[in-house]
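User: Sequence recovery, please. Input:
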């Protein structure tokens, strides 16, 4: 039986955490996540401290009682004393701040008058200091969806946590290369109406973030946390969504689990749970409260200036413009945008008037995949394509030769363009005449097969067909 989400008073909001593609938030170290052997190892123990209200947060106390030892791995050339918590934070990364303000404006939010960083108690070991620095950047925004506006309550800028390497009963090991990467956190109001709507909202916000061209891409660079409640009971926070495709099913399963608890006459817990691979959820810790926040005294208060912030074109609009301007199909236009090849494609499509934009787009998108699939070789086509297209534009080579030349480059060979140069009509006729004379009784398709084998890359296919028909007749 399908769940009636309106009937059960389903309340749902989403928090999106996205790494920004800049240097770290409070130092100049690169945002380079490493897995190689570290040259610095330190050991620590962390304890829970009272927040601004004077109380110790329940979630922090839960972690503190585990009394774990923490081992931190670092690198002398890409991490510094800020990550080790041996030096105060430097000035806030201005580029990261500007990206946050840019996103705020794109999401119709209002930047705050003053940006004040706070310390959020985190003692699971993922922060060497025992807290995470976070600042409110903007409030009261919204995103348009198929089921109406979803309000954006807050947009924050914070520092990424360290990366877990290994957990044991007595100690956890973290790698500090990820610690301090700037994160934008976007939290919606509980306006999401059902699991599918949650996925749509996450996709819309994700698209807005990617439109800046300043966010990191790949597994682990963006995380979604879902907050939900049913029948006005306690809220649950679900963390660890790896794939948006699974989001609706996990939300559906957690909703059913909480409804069963309520049907038994019990109260569901206010807790943080983890999204599991089998699309269920598992307990992580109690829900944190306000007691975990207190002011950061080492970072200056900032008055934001949005007068020079430029709002970029949305990815969806860029894709539509590519379709319209260069007569591309929607799928290919979307792939050009998503692969960050818009600039190079636009440049090439405008430069080469004798080559169809569709061929240029297809080559940029599919040649790399095809070479990897067929020959197990890697190549960045954008670095070589312009030189090859110069020959195609001047009708010195065929379209099929473009791929063959890219294959040569992928195999670390310097391409000999002369061997791909097109024959003139007189030379083509000579080859075709020889083929016909040697195979007088052969059907046309067989002659065509031999002709294509000999002339592939040397003559245009349509031209070969045309001249072969004349030769046979």
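Assistant: Recovered sequence (473 residues):
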């Amino acid at each position: 039986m399908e769940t009636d989400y309106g009937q059960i008073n389903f309340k749902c909001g989403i928090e999106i955490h996205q790494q920004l593609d800049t240097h770290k938030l409070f130092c100049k170290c690169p945002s380079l996540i490493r897995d190689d052997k570290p040259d610095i190892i330190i050991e620590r123990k962390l304890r829970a401290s009272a927040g601004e209200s004077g109380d110790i947060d329940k979630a922090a106390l839960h972690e503190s009682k585990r009394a774990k030892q923490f081992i931190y791995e670092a690198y002398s050339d890409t991490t510094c004393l800020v990550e080790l918590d041996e030096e105060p934070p430097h000035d806030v990364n201005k580029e990261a701040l500007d990206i946050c303000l840019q996103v705020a404006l794109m999401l119709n939010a209002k930047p705050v008058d003053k940006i004040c960083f706070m310390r959020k108690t985190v003692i699971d070991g993922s922060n060497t200091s025992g807290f995470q620095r976070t600042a409110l950047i903007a409030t009261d925004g919204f995103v348009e969806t198929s089921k109406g506006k979803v309000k954006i309550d807050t947009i924050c800028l914070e520092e990424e946590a360290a990366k877990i390497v290994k957990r044991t009963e007595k100690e956890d090991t973290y790698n500090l290369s990820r610690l301090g990467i700037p994160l934008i956190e976007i939290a919606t109001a509980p306006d999401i109406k059902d699991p599918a709507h949650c996925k749509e909202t996450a996709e819309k916000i994700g698209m807005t973030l990617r439109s800046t061209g300043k966010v990191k891409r790949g597994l682990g660079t963006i995380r979604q946390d879902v907050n939900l409640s049913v029948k006005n009971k306690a809220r649950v926070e679900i963390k660890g969504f790896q794939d948006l495709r699974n989001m609706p099913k996990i939300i559906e399963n957690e909703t059913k689990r909480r409804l069963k608890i309520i049907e038994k006459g019990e109260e569901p817990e206010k807790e943080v749970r983890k999204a599991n691979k089998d699309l269920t959820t598992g307990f992580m810790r109690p829900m944190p409260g306000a007691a975990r926040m207190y002011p950061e005294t080492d970072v200056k208060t900032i008055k934001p200036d949005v007068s020079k912030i430029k709002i970029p074109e949305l990815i969806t609009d860029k894709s539509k413009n590519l379709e319209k301007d260069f007569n591309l199909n929607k799928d290919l236009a979307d792939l050009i945008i998503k692969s960050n090849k818009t600039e190079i494609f636009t440049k090439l499509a405008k430069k080469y008037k004798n080559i169809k934009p569709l061929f240029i787009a297809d080559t940029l998108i599919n040649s790399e995949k095809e070479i990897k699939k067929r020959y197990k070789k890697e190549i960045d086509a954008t670095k070589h394509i312009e030189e090859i297209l110069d020959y195609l534009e001047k009708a010195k080579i065929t379209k099929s030769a473009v791929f063959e030349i890219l294959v040569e480059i992928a195999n670390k060979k310097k391409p000999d363009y002369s061997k791909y140069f097109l024959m003139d009509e007189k030379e083509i006729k000579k080859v075709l005449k020889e083929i016909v004379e040697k195979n007088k009784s052969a059907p046309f398709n067989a002659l065509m097969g031999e002709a294509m084998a000999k002339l592939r890359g040397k003559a245009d296919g349509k031209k070969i067909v045309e001249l072969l028909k004349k030769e046979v007749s």
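The chain has a mean pLDDT of 91.
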